[in-house]
Amino acid sequence: MAVQRTNTPMPKPTLPTRVRKDDGLDCEICGARMQERSCKITCRNCGFTRDCSDP
Ligand SMILES: [Zn+2]
Questions:
Q1: For residue 43, which of 55, 30, 34 has the smallest C-alpha distance?
Q2: Residue 14 Cα, ligand 1 centroid: separation in angstroms?
Q3: Are 23 and 7 contacting, i.e. CB atoms less than 8 angstroms apart?
Q4: By Cβ atoms counted within 10 A, which residue in 32, 38, 39, 51 is the most buried?
C-alpha cells in the first residue's frame, strides 16, 4: 500500500501590516487624524488636544 504524502505548504496567515504614521497621530477619542503643532496635538475632527509630551 503506497502512502502518498502530499507536502502541501501551509498558507501563512496574513498579518495586517502596521503602517506607522510618521507625521501624525490618531485621535484617541474619534480616531481621526491629529495634527501636531508646536508641541500641541490637536484633533481637527473633535477638537481634542493633548500635549506632545504625553505618552
Ligand atoms: Zn478626535
A1: 34
A2: 30
A3: no
A4: 32
Distance 13 CA to ligand 1 centre (A): 32
Q: Three-state SS for 50? A: strand
Retrieve residue 31's grid coordinates. Answer: 480616531
Q: What's residue 43's pLDDT?
A: 93
Between the CA of 18 and the centroid of ligand 1 the distance, in Å, is 21
The pTM of this model reads 0.50
3-state secondary structure of 51: strand
Domain ranges of the chain: 23-55
- CA 15 to ligand 1 centroid distance, Å: 27
